[in-house]
Design brief:
10 strands, ten-stranded mixed β-sheet, about 260 residues
């Protein structure tokens, strides 16, 4: 029995979806053929079921890399082989990445402290290429607007704007005036998943729901645009964005080998 997720071998399917919010576990469960409750301890809520005949588990990670690292490590001990984060990233950093889009990270900026305790910060946080391809195919088949690229994982939800703006200081150089933001999105968990999965020899990917209007990195640096107040997100848009994210993740299962 694992001490935090309270699961053991036999409880967990080889494929696990990882929402942050425990309440989102049952939302994902509503898309499954059937499922059973496995455990509910602290921020870690787990169900196991099937989707179109494919066994799948869902475990919430809570907010941030420390709890995500705990969940990922313990799930791997219980038999997880493929882990896919299904979470939100709020507003994106490019104008064209509008609400109801999804971001499929190919890699992450490790702007957080958890993974430094595993391996030096020069080590990349990279998604498994086959998982990225499966998520891409799923989004394309379902007509879901998607973007692939670099995500930033960070620690502080209420950090000052300068913690974001530092990633766009290259815009102060005229050579880069027409360069789109090299970072698409920002959230608080994915780099821990990617690094730990790589170190422990399993596969990982992520699909992130965009549920707020974009705050372009370039505008923030050059025009002093401030980060949006996420408390004013439209709840209907947020729910629909999450459903697109869930459909993308579940639709990818048939493409994973």
């Amino acid at each position: 029995m694992q001490p935090h997720i309270e699961c053991r071998k036999g409880d967990i399917a080889p494929i696990v979806l990882l929402p942050g919010d425990p309440k989102r576990v049952n939302l994902i469960g509503s898309f499954l053929d059937e499922y059973r409750e496995v455990a509910d301890n602290r921020e870690f809520r787990t169900i196991t079921g099937t989707y179109q005949g494919v066994p799948v588990s869902v475990t919430s990670t809570g907010i941030g890399c420390p709890s995500t690292a705990i969940a990922v490590e313990e799930l791997i001990v219980c038999g997880a082989k493929i882990l896919i984060r299904v979470g939100t990233c709020g507003s994106a950093w490019r104008e064209e990445i509008t609400p109801l889009s999804v971001v499929i990270p190919t890699a992450c900026v490790r702007d957080e402290g958890t993974t430094i305790e595993y391996i030096p910060e020069g080590f990349p946080a990279v998604a498994d290429t086959d998982i990225v391809a499966a998520l891409t195919a799923s989004a394309q088949e379902q007509g879901i607007r998607f973007f692939r690229g670099i995500n930033r994982t960070h620690d502080s939800f209420y950090a000052p704007d300068r913690s974001v703006a530092k990633w766009g200081e290259f815009y102060l150089d005229q050579r880069f005036n027409d360069t789109p933001s090299p970072i698409l999105s920002s959230e608080m968990e994915t780099s821990a998943l990617f690094v730990i999965a790589t170190l422990m020899g399993v596969r990982a990917g992520a699909v992130l729901a965009v549920d707020a209007e974009p705050t372009p990195l370039k505008s923030m640096v050059l025009r002093q645009t401030h980060l949006p107040n996420v408390a004013f997100k439209n709840k209907d848009i947020s729910t629909e964005a999450q459903k697109s994210m869930i459909r993308t993740a579940l639709g990818a299962l048939k493409h994973i080998r």
